Prior knowledge:
Blueprint: H1 22-34, H2 39-48, H3 63-87, H4 94-122
Helix pairs in contact: 1-2, 3-4
Amino acid sequence: MARPKKETALRHSHPVMLRFTDTEYTRLLSHAKAANLPLAEYLRRQVTGKKVAVKYEIVADLPELKKLIAEFGKIGSNLNQIARHFNSGGIHSQEMQKAIRQGIADIYEMKYEVLRLAGDFRSLSEEIPDGQKGAASHGHPETHRQ
């Protein structure tokens, strides 16, 4: 089956010839690819002032983040050991409760450190989706200290 023809008013019937340097052309291609649009449609939207949504992925390779990720792994291992202790009938002692509260406080402190490190990247990203707003703002390490 053949593709249906566009209405006369919707047809792009006026070609425009432009010449770009290699650098300009490469840059335009990368922007069009980031916007997930063909080059012609990207340029058309730019010229007519229509909105072009370009999504960038920010990758951070900071030693501080790597260190925190390793710490999160250690915490996960410790939580598994605590769960195993209690699930096997371990005694709930004051010392154990104090250690758990300290662990929770440490987790919250690391959470805020990650948020502080990621703060510079937030300004570059678009608005946080409604479903995630407030997710990073609950809890405080001081409420979990003994």
